[in-house]
Structures are given as structure tokens and as C-alpha cells.
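ok, trying the design again with the full structure, not the truncated one.
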């Protein structure tokens, strides 16, 4: 019996455990919160990632380790990797944890990126604003996620406010200034690479964010073949450069038809949740296959799919359950502002069917604003 250890016990670990059950896998989850939602399906070691005793207990009970959370301290990942196989590797995790390191790697690999500069001091911020121009965004290099740890600078006069908000973190997690990209849309590639180097990617996904948090994803994205090929080529290059094993997401901006890489998420990703019902093999199942050295599953799509994130609290399920292609995911979390508590996926064989189902669900749940951009992307209604 193989036991997969997962560092982090949120919804990603929970969905990994659910998708691993048919493979006969056991799971052990490590999280500092004793009510982490993956704990409803898998035994847990409760402890901080820096707690040596907890890490040792975790390591002693598992055959292989992976992550639901990318900000596990590098030393903890390294310590673990000396005892059990860890995928993705601590090196890949280390690059993805640092916005400066990942953007530098993208650039080295010839993957276009927004303008960026390291910001270590207040003077460096002024210099970076002068070089990059406004608008721009000051971000923490490490530990930022879902739009947290970011300050938008509209004019150079905002530099003081940006420094007041984030300057103290220059010495701890580091800061990076990025040019603000006036993108037409946001896309992501969710892809998987096996232990033997086999690479597969799901169709390109289009994403909509609200306040920096993913609100909806549509797959396949309404993109031409050439754009999807370029996005997949970027993802493949990155995975090979990092000798990456497992699932990852490459988030991209599309501006004037060109792709610019925003970030690498070294784990299963929210923009790949639609793969559970919308693809031959889900991202969760393929991640497990990859880390265990099993053959990877086919990543082809089954029609068209849209994922809607539920943030803060769960809506009533009926409107989605009533749909022929409606699928409900309640993460078993308590309600809290800004928290990802669940999602729904609507799947349909045809694009217009998906648009109609989205319109029905949006109206029933009073979430027209959430579904509207997706319906618009799907094109004219019949
Ligand atoms: P991140 O945490 O970097 O993924 O940022 C969260 C969201 O903020 C992105 O999905 C974008 O919607 C927006 N954002 C981040 N960086 C930029 C940028 N350089 N230009 C424009 N929008 C951005």
C-alpha cells in the first residue's frame, strides 16, 4: 500500500486524496491547522512546516511527498527530500516561490515577461518606476498569492504609499516591481511532466479574476491554434529546465495577441479544476500518476467546461445540480470573507449549450456578473 504525503491540507490536498482513492492510494496530510479540509478524507499530522518532530513523523509514514501549498520553507522541503522522494523537487519549488527568480528564468528561456526589476530599497523603487514607467505593480517576491502583497502604482507620486504598504518587507521577503500589463485576457496552461520526462498539457484555459482572486475559468480558451501551441511550448520548456515532476500551471497574460508569463504555480491549480469532469484525466489524478512514476493519462477535453469559484460562502447547490453537465464541489470549509470554499463546473458538448447553462445558473444564483464575461467569450448566442 503506497502512502502519499501532502504538505498542506487545503482543497487541493482534499481533491488529490479524492482522485487517488481509485488508484488504491493512502494519504497523509500535514498542516498547521487541525481543521484543514483535507483532514476530512485523510489522516493528518498537525504541525508547522518548520516543526522537525512533526516533519519526522510525517516522513516516517509516507512513501513519497508532494505539496498542496508552494510556500513550504525551502529548508523543510530539502530536509524531507533527504529522507523520501519529493516531487516537484525543492529546487523547482524554490524558483516558483520567488517572483524574481521565476521571471529571471522565464526570460533566460526566451519566454516573454512583463518588465520587472528587483526593489531592495526606497531609492531602488524610484529608479525602477523611472525605468519601467507607470502604471506598475509593486509585489512581494515571496509569500504573495491571490493578489495579496501587491500595491498598484498609478503615478510616480504613489511611490510613498507603495513603500509605506510594502517597504518593510523588502528586507524579509523581498520586493519586485512589474510593469502593469493592459492585457486583453488572462490564460493559463496546466501541464504535467512525469518522472521519465513525458510531458502532457491540457487545453489552454481562459481565466477571469476579481480583486486578484480567480472567479471563473473556461476551457478550451477561445484562442487560435498558434497561441495555444506557443503557450504549451513555453510550459514544456519551463518544465524541462526545472526537471519538473508533477502538475503545474503557467499563468499568462495575452496582450495584443502576444503571451507574457506572469507566474508559475508548482502544484495542481485552481484554473485546472475543470479537468475533473471536463477531461479524460484530471489534473489531480495525473499529478499523482506523475509523482508515483505511473503512466500519465490522456489530457484531452470532453467538450467545453467552465469552472466557477465560490468565494466566502457556498451558494445553494440546486441550480447547478439541475444542469445536465453540472458538478458541485463543496470543500467542507466554514464561510469566511475571501476564502475559496468551493467551486462548480459546468460541462457541455457544445459551446452554445455551455453558454445557456451558464446563463441559467448565473440568473438562479444572482451571479450574472460572474458568468457574464464567460458567456461573452463563448460568442454570440444562438
Ligand atoms: P498574481 O498574484 O501575480 O497572480 O496576481 C493576481 C492577479 O493580479 C493576476 O491574475 C492579474 O489579474 C493581476 N496582475 C498581476 N500582475 C499584473 C501585471 N503585471 N499587470 C496587470 N495585472 C496584473
Amino acid at each position: 500500500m503506497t502512502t502519499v504525503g501532502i504538505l498542506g491540507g487545503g482543497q487541493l490536498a482534499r481533491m488529490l486524496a479524492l482522485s487517488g482513492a481509485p488508484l488504491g492510494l493512502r494519504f497523509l496530510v500535514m498542516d498547521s491547522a487541525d481543521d484543514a479540509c483535507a483532514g476530512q478524507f485523510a489522516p493528518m499530522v498537525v504541525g508547522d512546516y518548520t516543526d522537525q518532530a512533526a516533519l519526522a513523523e510525517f516522513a516516517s509514514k509516507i512513501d513519497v511527498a508532494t505539496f498542496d501549498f508552494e510556500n513550504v520553507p525551502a529548508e523543510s522541503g530539502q530536509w524531507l527530500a533527504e529522507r523520501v522522494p519529493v516531487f516537484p523537487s525543492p529546487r523547482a519549488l524554490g524558483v516558483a516561490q520567488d517572483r524574481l527568480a521565476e521571471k529571471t528564468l522565464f526570460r533566460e528561456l526566451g519566454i516573454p515577461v512583463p518588465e520587472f526589476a528587483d526593489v531592495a530599497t526606497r531609492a531602488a523603487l524610484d529608479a525602477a518606476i523611472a525605468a519601467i514607467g507607470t502604471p506598475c505593480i509593486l509585489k512581494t517576491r515571496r509569500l504573495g498569492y491571490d493578489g495579496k502583497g501587491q500595491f498598484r502604482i498609478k503615478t510616480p507620486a504613489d511611490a510613498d504609499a507603495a513603500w509605506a504598504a510594502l517597504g518593510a518587507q523588502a528586507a524579509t521577503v523581498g520586493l519586485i516591481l512589474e510593469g502593469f500589463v493592459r492585457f486583453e485576457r488572462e490564460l493559463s496552461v496546466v501541464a504535467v511532466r512525469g518522472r521519465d520526462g513525458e510531458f502532457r498539457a491540457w487545453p489552454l484555459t481562459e481565466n477571469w479574476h476579481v480583486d486578484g482572486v480567480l472567479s471563473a475559468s473556461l476551457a478550451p480558451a477561445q484562442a487560435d491554434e498558434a497561441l495555444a501551441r506557443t503557450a504549451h511550448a513555453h510550459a514544456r520548456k519551463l518544465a524541462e529546465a526545472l526537471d519538473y515532476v508533477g502538475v503545474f500551471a503557467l499563468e499568462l497574460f495575452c496582450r495584443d495577441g502576444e503571451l507574457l508569463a506572469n507566474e508559475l504555480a508548482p502544484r495542481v491549480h485552481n484554473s485546472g479544476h475543470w479537468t475533473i469532469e471536463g477531461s479524460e484525466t484530471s489534473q489531480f489524478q495525473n499529478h499523482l500518476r506523475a509523482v508515483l512514476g505511473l503512466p500519465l493519462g490522456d489530457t484531452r477535453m470532453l467538450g467545453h467546461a467552465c469552472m466557477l469559484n465560490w468565494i466566502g460562502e457556498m451558494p445553494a447547490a440546486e441550480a447547478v445540480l439541475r444542469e445536465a453537465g453540472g458538478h458541485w464541489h463543496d470543500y467542507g470549509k466554514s464561510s469566511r470573507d475571501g476564502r475559496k470554499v468551493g467551486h462548480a463546473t459546468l460541462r457541455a458538448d457544445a459551446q452554445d449549450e455551455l453558454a445557456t447553462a451558464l446563463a441559467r445558473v448565473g440568473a438562479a444564483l444572482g451571479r450574472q456578473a460572474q458568468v457574464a464575461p464567460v458567456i461573452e467569450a463563448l460568442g454570440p448566442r444562438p
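Keeping the full-length input from now on. The mean pLDDT is 96.
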